[in-house]
Amino acid sequence: MPGMSEKAPAAGASDAAAASDLTEGEVRKVDKDNKKLTIKHGPLKNLDMPGMTMVFGVKDDAMLDKLETGAKVRFQAEKIDGKIVVTKIESAR
Fold first, then answer.
1. Where is the composition biased (Low complexity) (predicted)?
2. Which residues lie below 8 Å from residue 81, measured CB to CB, with a gap of 6+?
3. How many beta carbons lie within 10 A of that of residue 46, not counting itself?
């Protein structure tokens, strides 16, 4: 949705910078067997990628234990060894 990523400035500059690196999304599938997440997400600016629904690997398998289908999240993805991997994810409350 337009304007959803517009947030009031955080108290500390480092908090604001960290929050701006995260992309909002919604978990569509948690695949623990294959260590993958399907996320419908907004644009990934650091990867120059438009918003879409796609499958990501995860940097840490423990991330999968904290997520469920339909969860609203903020996350960071990076290209590692040619694959796009979620490196940080948190609940978007």
1. 8-21
2. none
3. 12
Helix (H, G, I), strand (E, B) or coil at 17: helix
3-state secondary structure (DSSP) of residue 89: strand
Q: What are the tokens at 86? A: 């979620």
Domain-embedded: residue 32 = yes
Supply φ then ψ for residue 64, to 5 degrees. -65, -30
Sign for the CA dihedral angle at 23, 43, 8, 14 comes to positive
pTM above 0.90, yes or no: no
Confirm whether 38 is domain-assigned.
yes
pLDDT for 28-46, tens place per residue?
999 999 999 999 999 999 9
Is position 78 within any domain? yes
Q: Give the 3-state secondary structure of residue 90.
A: strand
Q: What range defines the domain where residue 30 resides?
A: 24-91
